[in-house]
Amino acid sequence: MNYISTRGGMKAQPFSDILLEGLAPDGGLAMPESYPQVSAQMLESWRALSYPELAAKVLGLFVTDIPADELATLTARAYAPGVFDSEQVVPVKELEPGFALLGLSQGPTLAFKDMAMQFLGQVFEYVLTKRNSTLNILGATSGDTGSAAEYALRGKRGVSVFMLSPYGRMSAFQRAQMYSLQDENIHNLSVKGVFDDCQDIVKALAGDLEFKSQWHLGAVNSINWARISAQVVYYFWGWLRSTTAAGQKVSFAVPSGNFGNILSGHIARQMGLPIAKLVLATNENNVLEEFFRTGIYRPRGSEQTYATSSPSMDISRASNFERFVFDLLGRDGSKVKALWEQLAKEGQFDLSEHLPRFQEEFGFVAGASSHQDRLNTIAQVNEQYQTLIDPHTADGVKVAQAYREDGIPMLVLETALPAKFSETIEEAISQPAPVPAHLAGLADLPQKVVVMDADVAQVRRYIEAHAPR
User: Fold this and answer.
1) Whole-angstrom distance, CA of residue 327 vs CA of residue 346
2) Could you tell me if 259 and 319 are in contact, meaning their C-beta atoms sit under 8 angstroms apart?
3) Handedness of CA 227, 229, 230, 231 (dihedral sign)
4) Torsion of CA 440, 444, 445, 447, to 10 degrees
5) Residue scoring higher pLDDT (276 or 420)
6) Cα–Cα–Cα angle for 414, 370, 177, nearest 5°?
7) Among residues 233, 393, 270, 257, which one has the least CA distance to residue 319?
8) What pLDDT is attached to residue 292?
9) Is the pLDDT of residue 21 over 80?
10) Which residues are catalytic?
11) If I label 467, which of 95, 158, 280, 443 is the partner at 20 to 30 A Cα–Cα?
12) Any idea which of 32-46, 162-176, 399-413 has the lowest mean pLDDT?
């Protein structure tokens, strides 16, 4: 399995090469030359596998330059007992028959990002050790990616992390999780701006090929293909635990900000997993919902990006969306390149001629949720099902309700535990969210963070001063 760029300007490369690269040299994103296909017979043979075993099988279809037995060792370490709170790693939490949460928040930072990051931490160290090389991770986070990456990579040999986050735009719990880490290889940079400003700085530095090469820059944001492929695993897992026979369909509802999580569902569907609908749920920053409703992609500027009570989705320019457009346009890199050039000049593009294909061919439907919707949904789920959910998962549950179908299970991807967003939980149910015992003293720990302007040059200078040579 080799990888090409969504913009057509990169020669095909194996997994381990694109793992360390982040953005492709032409500014595009790495994609497999073709999607591996999974037969009904193969699916049935996977039913009895544990999560680490299933991860080795699914990832083995994408990672062909690491021996199968060594890949299985990496997934066994990533999803080992004690790393995740559940023995199953990803429990299916039934709310009522045919309606359940896919429990992706059992990891060390209580967010779905742990699912991919724990694998990423293992595979980074493996490849860097094999190559006797080092890597400086440059990333942006709206809340959960940063802590998941830092917890997965802290103390790892050959890796340093420089993580940009929007100043004042994350919950107190999210800040404490990230900034309390004192490891020498972890650097938190709090940027005076919104997530999109952080993401723009990352893209600018990653796009400076000389700087990128000199400082061995890599990525852990959802543009990293290893994360996307690791997330594909839990769609297979959810399907296997919600069906009893080949051919049965399942729908997935996915709270979406950067389009990475639901993109993995799209890939699973393209591989042959029987997915009926991929339900995209946004908050008030509904650029993606608008696209799937109208066919027009119109990202908003920083000043139009709302600060909401589901802050990890306060994103207006979804990095992974380009990968779906690549598939939508028949994998024509020149067309994708032209569209993104148009986007840079005009601020939008129109693919409304493809509108019928979104659902008919790819299964996508979409909806948006408001602050009041979140509060109502959190209260309703708590009262009706005795289950407490976080605001992002609440967006997913709210939008999923409109797309439930008889005979087709609906799995809502649980994106974080409520403890991370206790203020909103308290507003919804008049009591704070319980904090896991091992994190009870988190807010009292000293924090290590550098605040700076949303300025590419400042971040560049910081990396030059602190990155290992």
Assistant:
1) 23
2) yes
3) positive
4) 130
5) 276
6) 45
7) 257
8) 98
9) no
10) 113
11) 443
12) 162-176
